[in-house]
Amino acid sequence: MADAVRGHLEGRSGEWAGVLGLFLCPASRLPELITELIKAKPVKPVAISLVIDTGLGGVPKAVSIVESRSELLSLRMVEMPAPSDVDEVWLERVSEFVPEDVIRVVEPRRGGAEWLDGVGRVIEHGSWPKLRCGGLSQEAFPSLDQVADFLSVVSGGGVSFKATAGLHNAVRHTSEETGFTHHGFLNLLVATARSLSGKDVREALAETDGEKLAEEAKALSDPAAHAVRGVFASYGSCSLTDPVNDLEKLGLL
User: Fold this and answer.
1) Strand pairing category for 73-81 and 103-107
2) Rounded to whole angstroms, how far apart are CA atoms 68 and 147?
3) Which whole-number Å values give the CA distances from 189 to 87, 117, 204, 225, 231, in the listed order?
4) Which of 69, 105, 139, 236 is the most buried (most CB within 10 A)?
5) What is this structure's pTM?
């Protein structure tokens, strides 16, 4: 936690502060975060996304803790996994527990047609659906078709989404350490642009040529770029430097 806080505060005042988003903190580790922030004495509150790992019932307590330390923390987002049968009743409880001015991010369990139905219900409810793009097993990485199907539902729903896990680099690649093929966050961005304009989404997701993806991203008009970021609005990274390094190499910053 100490390293994460230090890295975030340094990044917040560094050269690429503009690409740095929210500090992600599991609800179970809030006390650690507060302890480290008291030591660090940030100039302004740290904007955070609260990752609920304590069950839906733990949301009110976690939100209350954050709001009681407003000199240190500013709650912007609450994100949580949904049960396999995500329904209106469960989603209404999410609305009751999360303040109106805070973004709600809900991750339906992936797999089968029910998964996309769940994504649709999350959108109808006014929350952001979350797409998990990787993890510690091969099964945690969605296929090209699954990502394309997700983008099709989200692009037609007029809502933002958040991506998480596995997006360590800008461009699709296979890890030498694990053998897992990772999706690239630049692939996802270009694929979102294509989804909005009715072009070939799967081709963009499968592309491994970073230069090609960069050229397509650079060619987006300002209105098109804003539309893309309105849909693909956020993603979580365990590194503050790798995404910046990749984008710099591709001439995108």
Assistant:
1) parallel
2) 39
3) 29, 23, 9, 9, 9
4) 105
5) 0.93
